[in-house]
Structure formats: C-alpha cells, structure tokens
Amino acid sequence: xxxxxxxxxxxxxxxxxxxxxxxxxxxxxxxxxxxxxxxxxxxxxxxxxxxxxxxxxxxxxxxxxxxxxxxxxxxxxxxxxxxxxxxxxxxxxxxxxxxxxxxxxxxxxxxxxxxxxxxxxxxxxxxxxxxxxxxxxxxxxxxxxxxxxxxxxxxxxxxxxxxxxxxxxxxxxxxxxxxxxxxxxxxxxxxxxxxxxxxxxxxxxxxxxxxxxxxxxxxxxxxxxxxxxxxxxxxxxxxxxxxxxxxxxxxxxxxxxxxxxxxxxxxxxxxxxxxxxx
Length: 278
Prior knowledge:
CATH topology of the largest domain: Peroxisomal Thiolase, Chain A, domain 1
Low-confidence stretches: none
CATH superfamily of the largest domain: Thiolase/Chalcone synthase
Helix content: 25-40%
Largest sheet: 4 strands, mixed
Mean pLDDT: 94
Number of strands: 10
CATH class of the largest domain: Alpha Beta
Shape: globular
Strand order of the largest sheet: 2-1-3-4
Radius of gyration: 18 Å
Structural class: alpha/beta
Number of domains: 2
C-alpha cells in the first residue's frame, strides 16, 4: 500500500494533466473529481492528494470508487457525467490500477500464473464537460448475475491481494451480454446495427470472443479491445477507457455516431454505456 501511494499519484497527475489539456480546461474549472481503483487503499487517499497536486479548487467535490474491479470505470464515468450535468461544470474521472504490486510468491496454482500474466498497470483520465465537443453520455445500464459472487475476487492476504478469476466467467458473460445490450438498445430505440463502434473491456481473449458472438457483432468489431489486450494487458478499471481511446483513434467518428462502452465487475455485473459523438 505504501508503494501504491508512491507510484499511483504521479501516474494520476500525468493522466489528469493530459485530459485537462486536451479539453482545454484549467484545473480551477473542475467541480467534481472521481477516482477509481481496486488495487490500492489509504486514507487520505490518492483523490485528495490529487486535488492538491493538480491545483484543483479546495471546493472540488470528490468521490472514490473502490472494490468494483475491472468494471469500475463505467460507474465512475456515469457518476462524473451526472455531476457535470447537474452542476453545469466540468468533472474529472481518473482510474489508476497497479496489479503488479500484488504478484504472489511462486505457486503450483496455474490460475495464479495466468492471472499475473494477464494483468498490468495503468492510469487514465477523462474530462467530462457539459455541452462539450467529444462523446456525450446518453444512457447506462447494469446487469448483476445472482450467485456469481465467488467467480471473480480480490482477497487480502499476508503477501498482498490475491486475485481469483474462474473459468466460468466467459460462460456467464456469453449468457448475459445480449440481455445487457438489448436493455440499452430498447431504452434508446436503437439496435446493434446502429452502433458505429464498440469499446469492450478485454478481460481476456475468450471474453472478447463470447461477447462478440453472443451479441451477434460482425467479425473484427472488438479489434480495438484485442489490440489493447495484446499491447497493454488487462489494466483492470483503466482498460476500457484505453480501449475507448483506441476506438476513437481507429474510427473517424462523425456527429451522431454511437459507441457502446462495456465492462465487467466482480459480482458478476455487466455494465454498458451508450455514447454519442457530439
């Protein structure tokens, strides 16, 4: 946890300054800060230190979202967007994850070897601006699968956090991804064919395969996620925002184009957000 405090703050500062610069915002413009992480804890945490280091106003309201794993960026984004819309002032979302701090001692458990080969570290940030010119948050949904609490875990041990990831997770996502997408589509009067691009959390290659096939997406629709997984690994909550950046890089989005952001939390909970290019 001490190492998390040392390393996470600098990564957050770099990511946040980049987001503010791209949005042409001064730190004093920010009304709300949301920090998402499940790999490090302290009180006071990174969120309040980030307020001081970035030069945000002492009146900046803060929310820390923890314990939500790889899907945490989605509730983080919706909370930040809701605050920005309610107050008419910009918000800032920062996700920081350092899973490499929790590599366990050597073990004959093959699952642990696979988990630590899959996960990596990252910090990302996004500015959420009322009436901004980027991607507008239109709607969000969440579907929680009952009885799946033990399929994705992060337990505290004497050697650090011990991750658990059951091979049953892809099967559950295959069963419930269509329901999640359909709920989002029905509420907004659209279909999968109306979506220009998909930013799906690459929990692993199989997860991308089952999501793509179960929703009936064309081959290659989730290539942005595969690229991020191949080049960066699974960075927990930060990953889906990196995928979204890759989607924007690959697609020349025009005004009105729709993008679906989808990620998954322990629980198992499937999160999806509908975004529209302004």
